[in-house]
Amino acid sequence: MHDLSPFKSDFAVFSSPDNTELCYLDSAATCLTPKVVAEAMYQYQNFAHANSHKGLYRLSAGATELVEQSRGLVAQFIGADTNELVFTQGTTEGINLVANSFVRPRLSAANNIVISCAEHHANLLPWQRLCRQSGAELRLAPLTPQGLIDVEAFAALLDDNTCFIAVCHISNVLGALNPVEQVCRLAREKSIPVLIDGAQAVSHGPVDVKKIACDFYAFSGHKLYGPVGCGVLFARADLIEVMEPDLLGGGIVEQVSLSETRFIKGPMKFEPGSHNVAAICGLVAAIDYIQAIGWPELLAYMNGLSAYLHQQLADLAFIKPLMPAAPGAWLNSFQCRGVHSHDVAGMLDGDDIAVRAGHHCAQPLHHSLGLKSSVRVSLGLYNGREDIDRLAAGLRNTYQLLAAD
Ligand code: PMP
């Protein structure tokens, strides 16, 4: 493997004079954007921008066509049907949509909702609030020592009163691929609907929502080399029809009188207001970018790089991973002995190395490990071994200068 990524030159950020030395290791927060994505957004915004689905003139019809073609392409990318794909602003909005439009009307004090204890706050807070409001119980499934959802313990939490299940495909702190097919199989045996938070998983290999057999799957474009502001919610077609939109506005109605509203059918009833067409174009360009590389090549590169990351960190005796590094995890969260996580990130920033420090929107997970924070390093296509070598040198330096022990 080369020291520099063969994909690095696809990303304009590194050619800017301010960023020639940038070592970006925070892709789990957001991926940097390849030029083709920015170009697609630029083209649309400069030369094709209009309000989609509303105007009867050529430019607006073009924007409508872009959105609807994109819906089909993005649906194909995750193995869904076109009429099952809702454009959202991101994973957070998708999960809230399901909480408010699907779960809330079906939840009573007798029910429970099961999630895992590794959830991002986006897949915890909506359920926590619904449970508090309804009197239902929120159950947290434990993890195996390897940081995966413990399927046996998970199964033991399900009962006839379980109303909903929501788990992450990959935790943004631990990085391991959860056995979501098994979770969905257990759920199906009891007819419990399942949402998968796919924010971290969608860039980690092909996702097929039909194979997973989930009812809902949410992800964000910006974790897939696309722009912020465009995400996706897959919702099973029959469920879309029984859900009422929570967010209300223009473009989602068949008929409105002053006292009543009849909503349109299909996914667009969850997309009130004006579409973010530029971001949708960017998402499609990101998917094209990934598909042009091809999953086999992308996975071979990233898995090789992640093995190198875990090895380099394992060689540093003062680095303590939160959990044993999961094979294939493209991130590693750890503590540096005797140095606060924020100080580690601050020191690395001095060498233009960008990592995340804090609880990564997963406070209960950190709490369950007896921690308040950690450092997280996460990889993207632009990273090469050189970045990991710089990280290791930066960590050594940090430890030598700051460690209290
Ligand atoms: N879930 C997970 C596992 C995530 O990593 C993130 C982003 N850090 C989210 C949900 C929320 O995604 P967004 O901020 O794009 O809505």
UniProtKB/TrEMBL annotation:
Pfam families the UniProt entry points to: Aminotran_5
Catalytic reaction equation(s): (sulfur carrier)-H + L-cysteine = (sulfur carrier)-SH + L-alanine
Family stated for the protein in its record: Belongs to the class-V pyridoxal-phosphate-dependent aminotransferase family. Csd subfamily.
PANTHER family: CYSTEINE DESULFURASE, CYSTEINE DESULFURASE 1, CHLOROPLASTIC
Major enzyme class: transferase
Keywords in alphabetical order: Pyridoxal phosphate, Transferase
Name listed for the protein in its UniProt record: Probable cysteine desulfurase
Its EC number(s): 2.8.1.7
SUPFAM superfamilies noted in UniProt: PLP-dependent transferases
Record-linked InterPro entries: Aminotrans_V_dom (IPR000192), Aminotrans_V_PyrdxlP_BS (IPR020578), Cys_dSase_SufS (IPR010970), Cysteine_dSase (IPR016454), PyrdxlP-dep_Trfase (IPR015424), PyrdxlP-dep_Trfase_major (IPR015421), PyrdxlP-dep_Trfase_small (IPR015422)
Cofactor requirements of the protein: pyridoxal 5'-phosphate
Domain Aminotransferase class V: 24-391
Purpose: Catalyzes the removal of elemental sulfur and selenium atoms from L-cysteine, L-cystine, L-selenocysteine, and L-selenocystine to produce L-alanine.
